[in-house]
Amino acid sequence: MTADADAAYAIADIITGDFSTAYTSAGSAATFVFTKTFSTPFACEYLAFAGHNFGDIGGTLSVTVDTVSKGSQVFAVGSTNSVVLFHFAEVTATTIEVTFTKTSSSDRATLAYVAAGELLPLESRNNEESGYQRAWKTRSINTRAVVNSSAAPVALLRESMTRKVALNLSNINQTITNSAAWNQFLDRVYIGGDFFIKERDGGDYYADDPTSTYMAFDAEVLPLKAHSETRALDNLSIKFSAFTGS
Description:
The chain has about 250 residues and is mostly beta strands. The chain is about 10% helix and about 50% strand. It has helices at about 55, 125, 175, 180-190, and strands at about 25, 30-50, 60-65, 70-75, 85-100, 110-115, 140-145, 155-160, 165-175, 195-200, 215-220, 225, 235-245.
């Protein structure tokens, strides 16, 4: 950590998918900055963030890779602590720097998880089947009203919950499912234990939106199914729990 550091925490607290650990800044500077330099450069085309309080306190999240800016996202005070993913052209990364410029220097920024690496290039806009649940448009919360003897609400109980989602993609070209990237994705699911999905990545239909992202975990990638008309295509189905932020 290079700014607003708190000696009680370490960068190791935020580079695994274990949300029982997190980094909370000291609340002594206007910007919370951490830098990670890797001894072995790696292929990188995204940075994802989950388990933070940026929406609670407000501010601007920005990321650079090897000193080159790769995106930013503004969080209004009191907004949702959305999972965020920045996608960019692949680079060979050596150093990653993350900066959160806080609304108030006395606020303490908290972050539980940062992920980086390569993305699996699934053309979901063209291949997703109808009925897919867009998890990022909801909340990981369940509410229940408590009523009095007249059946009028007197309290609202809220509890955290995960959304169960099934993603079905048809007509996936086998150049993807036969690639090294596919095997890396399977390793990410079954060894790493999580992956990220970003829906609004720019293009013909909508502008880029880093908050159109959710973290998938407890996932099962079902065996690929051959297309009914051509062996050049596969049909894919993934079941998982989705974390959208709080």
